[in-house]
Amino acid sequence: MRYPLATLFAALISASLAHAATPGQTACSQIQGSLGQGKVANPNLLNFQYQQSKNGYWNTRLNANNPACAVYPSSASDVSTSLKAIKAAGSRFAIKAGGHNPNANFSSTNNGVLLDMSKMTDKSYDPAKGTCTYQPGNKFGDLYEFYEQFGVTITGARLSGVGSGLGLGGGLSYLSGEYGLSVDGFQSLEVVLPSGEIVTASKTSYPDLFFAMRGGGGNAYGVVTSYTVTARKVGKFHSGLLVYALNETNRVLEAVHDFTRYNTNPKANLIATWEKIPLPDLNINLDEIFILFAVYDGEDPGNSYKNFTDIPHILDTRQVRSYVSTTRDLATPFATDISKGSNTFRVSVHAIDDDTYKQAYDQWRAWAQRPEIKSKYMLTSLDFQPVLRSLTDASKSQGGNAMDMPDGPWFWLNYLLTTPPTLSASDYNEIQESFKEMVNVVPAAKNLPLFINDAAYDQNPLPTFSTYQRLKSIKAKYDPDGFFSSKTGGWAFP
Ligand SMILES: Cc1cc2nc3c(=O)[nH]c(=O)nc-3n(C[C@H](O)[C@H](O)[C@H](O)COP(=O)(O)OP(=O)(O)OC[C@H]3O[C@@H](n4cnc5c(N)ncnc54)[C@H](O)[C@@H]3O)c2cc1C
Ligand SMILES: *[C@@H]1O[C@H](CO)[C@@H](O)[C@H](O)[C@H]1NC(C)=O
Ligand SMILES: *[C@@H]1O[C@H](CO)[C@@H](O)[C@H](O)[C@H]1NC(C)=O
Ligand SMILES: *[C@@H]1O[C@H](CO)[C@@H](O)[C@H](O)[C@H]1NC(C)=O
């Protein structure tokens, strides 16, 4: 009798252990109890909402995670309730806006609570104050379309599909030459602190928090539930692509350098991207293409792009169009969806007065040509993003940001690597390691900040900011128990 009873007990205990709720599950049922069923989606193959939240990442490798549930807050108070439950349960979590950050754990979580902001899509314009207020569930394209009717817009993504999280990492826009980064236009933010407290951060209210949130990174100091930013007058643009063949590389690269150094017209902006797909080498080199996104705020760009149009090109799609069209149609509509895949970014920063920008291009190209590398990628690109003098001047004149950007001009370089979904784990690790080494061959400039929005998880940009110590103490003040530091991804203060 004794022996079977003990066995029965053991069986009962292990059965109850198997069903013991994980911290994520505990938090989820607590949140569901408080917010109601309609705001929580549970793991279930047939739950479309859950599947959409779990699978919507631009880096599709992140879709492998299974959050304990997805929560759809509709207010700061919902976020506050959720954070308190997550903290009490000791669960991990992630804050997801547009889901474009490619780094693991930044806006994705396995077994934790996924705070999906997509239902918070309010937006409004205050003509008297000259401000736009929007919630984090909006994509930039939605905002540009909405604000166009008022003749205004905001400094945000160059591609319409990118989410609002872009702003928290700085936010480089086609309007940045005139108005600085997205963060430079921040007027006030509604923030749910790690404690659950709801505050307004501005130059006069919680100014230290406001300083840190102007480019110190998302998911570090709290959850933003509303952005109020400066409205910018908007009219017609002259914008489009200039496309070049491989044999013009050197001249185009030189023109990008000259533009970055000499352009004094803040209305003229560009991003230059070198793209490579791994076709076999042919004499005509169809596998490599240079695309210049030339965007001028106004109908007549004058001589701003003459150095580029003077170089023989394959295609020139520049024409007069709206800002909405500029951010939607230059590449291809839905570009952010089409480009979903096994994607990783890396970032670098280079000064204007040396030739490291050219060395960086040479390293990247030689690497992408290597047969053992070519067999492991689908696409790799190198983007030159000029940080013009007018950009850093505009930033300073609005109070500066968390990077306290040194005077331009200089370059942010963004490297993209897309690998085939079928690549084996060892091949994947190998090419990622090699990608990292390649980018490191030409060291980043020592006194310039790395760009948060383009950085890989192992490239913590914060220590490259002159404001690092200040940010570190603000982080310690607003996340005193290390709740966000230990339970969600993002940049750490080592
Ligand atoms: C196709 C493409 C185009 C891009 N174009 C540009 C560009 O033009 N300019 C530029 O600067 N960058 C650009 N980026 C980089 C982009 O800024 C980052 O990928 C950014 O992370 C995107 O924000 P998201 O809301 O889509 O992503 P998410 O991954 O959802 O969010 C990014 C980060 O912010 C956090 N976060 C998001 N919302 C909140 C919130 N409300 N409160 C607190 N934390 C939050 C997340 O946890 C995450 O760590 C581009 C990226 C891609 C893939
Ligand atoms: C993501 O978080 C999980 C859980 O803490 C951890 O095991 C994993 O190593 C993290 N991934 C990265 C790339 O940091
Ligand atoms: C590149 O090739 C095109 C087409 O063959 C030609 O017109 C152009 O002059 C070439 N440029 C250089 C720098 O050789
Ligand atoms: C074009 O390049 C030349 C140097 O070759 C430079 O002097 C000039 O300022 C550049 N023009 C513009 C508009 O950037």
UniProtKB/TrEMBL annotation:
Q: What is this protein called?
A: FAD-binding domain-containing protein
Q: Which residues form the signal peptide?
A: 1-20
Q: Name one Pfam family in it.
A: BBE
Please report which protein family the annotation says this sequence is part of: Belongs to the oxygen-dependent FAD-linked oxidoreductase family.
User: Is Phosphoprotein one of the keywords?
Assistant: no
What GO molecular function terms would the record report?
A: FAD binding; oxidoreductase activity
PROSITE patterns xref list: FAD_PCMH
Q: Where is the FAD-binding PCMH-type domain?
A: 63-234
Name its species.
Answer: Jaminaea rosea
Q: Which InterPro entries match?
A: BBE (IPR012951), FAD-bd_PCMH (IPR016166), FAD-bd_PCMH-like_sf (IPR036318), FAD-bd_PCMH_sub1 (IPR016167), FAD-bd_PCMH_sub2 (IPR016169), FAD-linked_Oxidoreductase (IPR050416), Oxid_FAD_bind_N (IPR006094)
Q: Which domain of life is it from?
A: Eukaryota
Its ancestry begins with: Eukaryota, Fungi, Dikarya, Basidiomycota, Ustilaginomycotina
Record bears the keyword Membrane: no
Classification via PANTHER family: BINDING OXIDOREDUCTASE, PUTATIVE (AFU_ORTHOLOGUE AFUA_1G17690)-RELATED (PTHR42973), FAD-BINDING PCMH-TYPE DOMAIN-CONTAINING PROTEIN-RELATED (PTHR42973:SF22)
Q: Which UniProt keywords apply?
A: FAD, Flavoprotein, Oxidoreductase, Signal
